[in-house]
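USER: I would love a firmer grasp of how sequence relates to backbone shape in proteins. This is the protein in question:
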Amino acid sequence: MKKLLKRILALLRQIVQQFSSTQQPSSPPASHPPAIPIPPIPTFVPQWHNGLVLVCSQCAVEQFNGSSHRINRSTTASEDLQNWLKSRLKFDGLWGKYRVVSTSCLGVCPQGRVVVLCHHAVGQQCFIVNPQDEREILYSYIKQMHRY
């Protein structure tokens, strides 16, 4: 093992020596490596620049009092809230200025409630709502954000 380490150190010294002999002595040592040009990534202003509403789809997967949060056999509470928000935004002519999408776990995991994260021009707000009883209150917050 000692012989192997000695051999590795000798090879490293040899590499360093070769590297230092190939550098020109007149050039100053670089303080940092040269910048590699990064190609630009196209950007755009989305039509929903007023706001993005993220509804956690995982909240409905959690169990509450031994039953899942299903409104009916095919729709979870999160999906129902998401669809309801979309229809309200469309009804008020705000669909397109706002976008409602589902997202995976946001890390809050409330029982019996759904996490909703609203991004808008001023900043972001995170709500923990009862998907049936507090949807109108949530929507009023979203409409207030539209004024800013």
About this structure: The chain has three helices and six strands. The beta strands are 51-56, 63-64, 67-68, 98-103, 114-120, 124-129.
